[in-house]
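Exercise: predict the fold of this chain.
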Amino acid sequence: METRGQHEVHLNDIGQIGLTVRDLARAKAFYEKTLGMTLLFDAGTMAFFRCGSIRLMIGLGEKDAPMGGTILYFKVEDLQAVYEVLTADGVVFEQPPHLVARMQSHDLWMAFLKDPDGNALGLMSEVARPGGK
């Protein structure tokens, strides 16, 4: 976590961009077969692709969610610490830190908040597991 002072967080690196889709199989085929992106992994209602140094996540939206939603995901080292600092600063999270996927060498944790205009922002942390490779 990049912090300066007790209540400052400095988000720098975008680790993932998420797009909301209606039909995951169709969208997955488009990104993988048509656009030639490398599929990294599937996680339930989501699929993740390599896009240079950034991951692209496509996922089914909530039942009444508008399509075409985009989420920026910022990488943080210590998600819980960033969550606590931002919460202390009055930020209200849509979803607190939670486990999204267990990978071979690490667990992917995320938390979600909205900016003042209602844009979704995600905070993501890849937490190494003991003995992970």
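Check your answer against the key: The chain has two helices and eight strands.
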